[in-house]
Amino acid sequence: MYPVSEAFLQAVQGNTRKYYWTGKITTAAGAEYPFMQEDIIKGSVYITAQCCGNSEIELVYFR
């Protein structure tokens, strides 16, 4: 093992990703509801699965 500082150990255990949410919700009737980061209540969104084709996370909802 390599010796590392306590600061390094704390840094690697911290949160490393920052998410910024934008998009739109489209209903079956075709109505569109755009949303921004400010529209989301903290703690109300969770990622349970993701598909990354590039630097974006693509979320898909299936009924």
What would you call the shape?
elongated
Structural class: alpha+beta
Compressed to H and E, one letter per element, the order equals HEEEE
Q: In percent, how much strand structure appears in the residues?
A: 15-25%
Largest sheet: 2 strands, antiparallel
Q: Which parts are unreliable, with pLDDT below 50 for 5 consecutive residues or more? A: none
Q: What would the average pLDDT be, to the nearest integer?
A: 77
* Number of β-strand runs: 4
Helix content: 10-25%
Distance between the termini: 48 Å
| Rg calc | 18 Å
Structural commentary:
The protein is 13% helix and 19% strand. With 63 residues, the protein is of the alpha+beta class. The protein has a domain at 16-58. The strands form 2 sheets. Strands 1-2 form a two-stranded antiparallel sheet. The N and C termini lie far apart (48 Å).
What tags apply to this protein structure?
two-stranded antiparallel sheet; about 60 residues; single chain; about 20% strand; 4 strands; alpha+beta; 1 helix
Summarize the structure.
The protein is α+β, with helices and mostly antiparallel strands and 63 residues long. The chain has one helix spanning 6-13, and strands at residues 23-26, 32-35, 51-52, 57-58. The model has no long low-confidence stretch (mean pLDDT 77).
